[in-house]
Amino acid sequence: MTGHAWLLLATLAAAIGVLVLLINSRLRFHPFVALMVVSIGVALVAGLSTEQITDSVEKGAGDILGNVGITLAFGAMLGRLLADSGATERIAGVIVDRAGTRSLPWYMAGAAFVIGIPMFFEVGLIVLLPLIFSVARRLQADGRIKGSAHVYLAAPTIAALCTLHGMVPPHPGPLIGVQGLHADLGTTILVGLICAVPTIVVSGPLYGRWIAPRLAVHPDRELVAQFTGRAPAEDADTSSAAGGAARPGAAGAGRTGGVALGWALASVLVPVVLMLLRTVAELALAGSSPVRHVLTFTGEPVIAMFAGFLFALFALGYRSGHAPEKVRESLTGAIKSVAGILLIIAGGGAFNQVLEDTGIGKAVESAATGAHLNLLLLGWLIALVLSFSTGSATVGIVAATGILAPMAGDGGVQNSLLVVAIGAGSIGLNYVNHAGFWLVKESFGMTLGQATKSHTAIQTLVSVCGLLMALLISVFV
């Protein structure tokens, strides 16, 4: 490597250090602001002209928002429609309604898996809290669970939600990886789902069954009452719980009774099926086939998510009798809720473009090639370190994607596996500087140690298992 290449690598290392410092110091820079500062600073140090810096930042931010931002906005609105209509509670309730005690964690993982396809981790967990609290109360009353019934049910829920959030499109992190690494979306969904299933099994039901007897977790009674609609005094009266406790899925039943399960499931699966059909068409049909052209168009992420959103708008919004004004207000709130994520994505796009335009990506490629590092392991490690350091999985994904993009091929399964590995890395070591950590801790009334042994441990298991699955699949493709 040349002296200039080493200078570029040193610049990258310094940039990452400054990024971590700005986000975690007393200044508490917003990740978007920190990414912009670092992007411009790297460009100046690397010798780009002021005109080149402006073009690079605008192109990087604009391109990624065009590819990911609109898709994310439709996904957020789709998730809000599912939640407001009670469809998610309906899906979850039907899945766990007839489950036995030992099988409940598996059904909870299944419910979270279905709900987690279109929803962010935090949103999915909040939606499922009424179900977790209601079922946990029944399990505690029956006395069939040693330790914490809440952890027994929460572990598979957390595992499924975070796995899908980090490793499977159409979530924003994997979509960023797909766009930045030029991976095929349908292939990435298939690979991500293959990696996700065993990962959820190990990190959710199996780990939850082991850790639940070792933790005494009792959520705040007022919070339980807020989510389940039962007064705290009722919650404390466990002597009558066997006959009076809400059955699984009963929480919110008044809101979900009018939502048919078929409509709910269809709303979740429409965009995913369209994206998968596109991949099937590209593999099985000739390039001149009209059917292939149609499926390729409808399987584009923006079109697929738009189609899913429109389907849910009429099936779960207007069809359910909601006033149009209320539906519009709810959708506006959904867009506002992801504004911060959109800004981080834009800042990450600018950072990625600067890395490309300055030649830093090529320098990393040269160094990694010389060191004979496995690309999947390298992507996982970079995302893990940055996510842990900055408190943002999105920052870890966008930075790792930008650094490794020059080393990725022209598509194929390996690129999709790299997307999954980077996403898995961003999930691990989720600790006190992550919003999800505090959401879990406070929702279940955990101590810091309990949250570490449950939430942090689960997400780190997901991260490691996701990497191992990606490495295993890479051996055969």
Descriptive report:
There is one protein chain. The chain has about 475 residues and is mainly α. The chain has 24 helices and no strands. Helix 3 runs parallel beside helix 16. The radius of gyration is 23 Å and the shape is globular. Mean pLDDT is about 80; it is low at about 230-260.
Could you list some keywords that capture this structure?
477 residues; mainly alpha; 24 helices
Helical amount: over 70%
Per DSSP, the total helix count is 24
Spans of 5+ residues with little confidence (pLDDT < 50)?
Answer: 231-258
End-to-end distance: 31 Å
Average pLDDT rating: 80
Strand portion, in percent? under 5%
Question: In terms of structural class, how would the helical and strand content be classed?
Answer: mainly alpha
Report the order of strands and helices.
Answer: HHHHHHHHHHHHHHHHHHHHHHHH
Please give the radius of gyration in angstroms: 23 Å
Extended strand count: 0
Main beta sheet strand tally, sense and closure: none
Brief synopsis:
The chain has 477 residues and is mostly helical.
Secondary structure elements and pairings:
Blueprint: H1 3-24, H2 31-46, H3 50-84, H4 87-96, H5 104-116, H6 121-142, H7 149-167, H8 172-181, H9 185-211, H10 221-228, H11 232-236, H12 241-244, H13 253-256, H14 261-284, H15 290-298, H16 301-318, H17 324-337, H18 339-358, H19 360-371, H20 375-390, H21 393-404, H22 413-427, H23 435-443, H24 448-476
